[in-house]
């Protein structure tokens, strides 16, 4: 079984290098896709020729496919990495944002009992249940646009600290190279075809469960925004820092009603949540977020 996994992996890496060497004008993405498909076909034929009796067809094909895919991912990761760090803010911007969150001026409310316990419990169960979907999503993203599977959005967390918010990549690699940090629209041409589907069902947010387990996010709380955007808002609306007196969340009232709204309106909704936050409110908001996603009522991020 190890041979069925390692063989296609090494073969895919070797074929990708060969294709790039033989055809210098062939794009790296096309070379990697072709190498994975060629590796899959060749190892499948070898499997048929050898007729390994101890391994079923389904398990053998699954290992072959996994090996070929891992070979392609390994090849692209050496050049682009597995995670794309999306437009990290400069140290100066980070310091300016932190300056608005002085504990002596900004009140930090007490954390409700059992909130962290609920975060860990629900996130752990969610991670285990959705893990098979992660591999499917990773494969779809990579085959459409070989490169990093994940990307990190540098966002403002509790206390004004910038943290790396983990997501599945839904846009092309280096999507902001020419545009800079800009908000995504519903018909953004930079989106991958699978990215539109991932965002529609908010599956691109599944890796945020890792942030919840790491303690940089909560299941429910003010939705984290990019540091560069928060810096702009704070310059005209200093009280916007109040929303960072608690951990940011995957779901929140403002997110359920719509992503794109004026900062003052978003702040008002977040203030209401902070005043009333508790485990039961979190459970209700999580339920509303799921229903809104199923109905298609939640706006694109």
Describe the secondary-structure layout.
Blueprint: H1 2-22, H2 28-50, H3 57-80, E1 83-86, H4 91-99, H5 115-144, E2 150-156, E3 162-168, H6 193-200, H7 208-214, E4 218-220, H8 227-236, E5 249-251, H9 253-257, H10 263-276, H11 279-295
Parallel strand pairs: 1-2, 4-5
Antiparallel strand pairs: 2-3
Helix pairs in contact: 1-2, 1-3, 2-3, 4-8, 5-6, 5-7
Fold and architecture overview:
- By secondary structure, the protein is mainly α.
- Helix content is 56%, strand content 8%.
- The strands form 2 sheets. The chain has a 3-stranded mixed beta sheet. The protein has a two-stranded parallel sheet with strand order 4-5.
- Helix 1 crosses helix 2.
- The chain starts with a helix and ends in a 6-residue tail after the last helix.
- The N terminus is likely disordered.
Q: How many domains is the backbone divided into?
A: 2
Total helix count? 11
Q: Averaging pLDDT over every residue, what do you get?
A: 81
**DSSP E strands, number:** 5
Report the β-strand fraction as a percent range: 5-15%
Principal-axis shape: globular
User: How much helicity do the residues have?
Assistant: 55-70%
Largest sheet: 3 strands, mixed
Using only CA atoms, what is the Rg? 22 Å
Which spans of ≥5 residues are poorly predicted at pLDDT below 50?
Answer: 1-5, 19-26
Descriptive labels:
single chain, 301 residues, mainly alpha, 2 domains, three-stranded mixed beta sheet, two-stranded parallel ribbon, 11 helices, 5 strands, globular
């Amino acid at each position: 079984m190890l041979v069925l996994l390692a063989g296609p992996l090494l073969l895919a890496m070797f074929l990708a290098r060969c294709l790039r060497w033989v055809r210098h004008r062939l794009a790296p993405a096309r070379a990697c896709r072709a190498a994975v498909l060629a590796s899959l076909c060749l190892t499948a034929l070898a499997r048929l020729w050898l007729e390994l009796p101890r391994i079923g067809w389904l398990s053998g094909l699954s290992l072959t496919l996994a090996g070929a895919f891992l070979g392609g991912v390994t090849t692209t990761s050496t050049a682009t990495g597995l995670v794309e760090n999306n437009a990290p803010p400069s140290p100066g911007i980070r310091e300016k944002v932190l300056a608005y969150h002085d504990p002596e001026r900004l009140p930090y409310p007490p954390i409700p009992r059992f909130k962290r316990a609920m975060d860990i419990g629900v996130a752990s169960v969610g991670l285990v249940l959705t893990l098979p979907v992660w591999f499917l999503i990773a494969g779809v993203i990579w085959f459409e646009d070989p490169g990093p599977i994940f990307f990190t959005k540098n966002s403002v967390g509790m206390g004004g600290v910038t943290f790396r918010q983990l997501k599945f990549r839904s846009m092309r690699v280096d999507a902001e190279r020419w545009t800079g940090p800009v908000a995504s629209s519903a018909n953004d041409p930079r989106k991958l075809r699978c990215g539109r589907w991932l965002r529609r069902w908010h599956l691109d947010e599944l890796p945020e469960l890792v942030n919840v387990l790491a303690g940089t996010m909560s299941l429910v709380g003010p939705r984290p925004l990019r540091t560069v955007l928060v810096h702009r808002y704070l310059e005209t609306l200093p009280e916007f820092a109040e929303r960072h007196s608690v951990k940011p969340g995957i779901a929140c009232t403002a997110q359920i009603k719509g992503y794109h709204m004026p900062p003052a309106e978003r702040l008002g909704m977040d203030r209401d949540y902070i005043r009333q936050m508790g485990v039961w409110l979190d459970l209700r908001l999580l339920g509303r977020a799921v229903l809104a996603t199923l109905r298609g009522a939640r706006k694109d991020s």
